[in-house]
């Protein structure tokens, strides 16, 4: 009995020690970062003042309602850029995934090259893509489209490859044993089977790109991000708050629609 009690106490003491160690490490990391950046901790304690200022200035008012037409037009353009980038990237990603999946590739070297290529594209942050492309294509919708396209291409290529590989070599070999050609295996056996999973990934990326397109617009000077930056810098906080509200409504609407489509497909 005493032995069991000692083991229980030893277990909980070890847990408490690990928790205390983690808290100490986090505290030291915060203190070091605060000291290095000159961060004023007392400002964090007055966060209620910042929230009160936001509520007072960023709530849309009657004056900001006159900007709704311009905001809705730019919001629609942002949505179109996000959808166009996702659909174009999905087509390219499906092609790369088919020739790069281990169960379908002609050579394992091709698979590793495509995996490395997709990892490179998706591991570069969307902000970095926008800044890189901004030097070549300047401030226009094409820059935002390409930034979203490259990141989405990398993400969907990897996701589609894993989905195809989960289909299993046994099913592919069974289809080939019946005399089906390579294209018949893909278009009549593989794609109908994984279509729902592919569509789920595409809908997820549309949601993600609608959110990212706002940030990209801030950098590229286009879409809803541009007019938010314009209103904010010109001290039209009510109009800027209306922009934020419209983006929230769009993101929630897209998510609800994608969830509905996902339930209908499943």
From TrEMBL:
Pfam families: BPD_transp_1. Coiled coil: none annotated. Keywords: Cell membrane, Membrane, Transmembrane, Transmembrane helix, Transport. SUPFAM superfamilies: MetI-like. Residues 75-258 form the ABC transmembrane type-1 domain. The keyword Transmembrane applies. It is found in: Cell membrane. It comes from the Bacteria. InterPro entries: MetI-like, MetI-like_sf. The keyword Nucleotide-binding does not apply. It is a multi-pass membrane protein. The chain crosses the membrane at residues 21-39, 75-99, 120-137, 143-161, 182-203, 215-232, 239-261. Belongs to the binding-protein-dependent transport system permease family. This is ABC transporter permease subunit. Its main location: membrane.
């Amino acid at each position: 009995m005493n032995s069991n009690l000692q083991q229980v106490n030893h277990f909980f003491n070890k847990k408490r020690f690990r928790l205390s160690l983690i808290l100490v490490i986090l505290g030291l990391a915060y203190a070091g970062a605060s000291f290095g950046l000159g961060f004023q901790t007392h400002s964090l304690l007055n966060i209620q003042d910042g929230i009160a200022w936001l509520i007072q200035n960023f709530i849309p008012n009657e004056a900001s309602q006159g900007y709704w037409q311009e905001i809705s037009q730019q919001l629609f353009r942002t949505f179109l850029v996000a959808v166009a980038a996702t659909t174009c990237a999905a087509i390219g990603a499906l092609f790369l995934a088919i020739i790069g999946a281990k169960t379908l590739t002609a050579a394992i070297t091709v698979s590793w090259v495509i995996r490395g290529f997709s990892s490179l594209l998706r591991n570069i942050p969307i902000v970095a893509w926008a800044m890189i492309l901004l030097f070549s294509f300047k401030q226009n919708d094409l820059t935002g489209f390409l930034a979203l396209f490259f990141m989405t291409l990398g993400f969907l290529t990897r996701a589609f490859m894993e989905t195809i590989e989960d289909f299993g070599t046994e099913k592919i070999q069974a289809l080939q044993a019946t005399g089906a050609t390579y294209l018949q295996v893909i278009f009549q056996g593989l794609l109908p089977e994984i279509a729902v999973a592919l569509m789920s990934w595409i809908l997820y990326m549309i949601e993600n790109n609608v959110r990212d397109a706002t940030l990209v617009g801030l950098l590229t000077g286009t879409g809803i991000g541009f007019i938010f930056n314009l209103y904010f810098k010109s001290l039209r906080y009510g109009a800027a708050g209306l922009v934020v509200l419209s983006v929230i409504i769009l993101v929630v609407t897209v998510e609800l629609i994608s969830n509905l489509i996902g339930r209908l497909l499943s």
